[in-house]
Write a structure and sequence with these properties.
Blueprint: H1 6-24, H2 45-58, H3 65-74, H4 80-93
């Protein structure tokens, strides 16, 4: 379990915004917490998988995609802000994310 610091929070935000900026060919400064991943950026679920793998490597996380899928069904992600929040929860709680209410 990793304690979420301001630095980790900023790193996650930067990685998510840079990732979507590059993948969706938009300027990073046009992406905000309220940017809708599917409607505004034409993002897709494969992008989520790529991001999860980036964070798994960066933070040496031990979490299965199945666990993330279970959490995502109950807590769908639509915006960049929601995605950042979910990534932070994954980093902090790893496999225990499914036990969060």
């Amino acid at each position: 379990m990793i304690e979420i610091t301001d630095q980790i929070r900023q790193d996650v935000k930067d990685i998510v915004i840079d990732f979507f900026s590059e993948e969706c060919e938009v300027e990073p400064d046009t992406i905000t917490n309220d940017t809708h991943i599917f409607d505004d950026l034409d993002g897709d679920s494969l992008m989520f998988l790529e991001l999860i793998e980036i964070f798994k490597k960066k933070y040496n996380l031990n979490i299965d995609l199945k666990t993330i899928g279970k959490y995502s069904v109950k807590n769908p992600v639509r915006t960049i802000g929601e995605l950042i929040d979910m990534q932070l929860l994954i980093i902090e709680h790893e496999e225990n994310i499914v036990n969060i209410d």
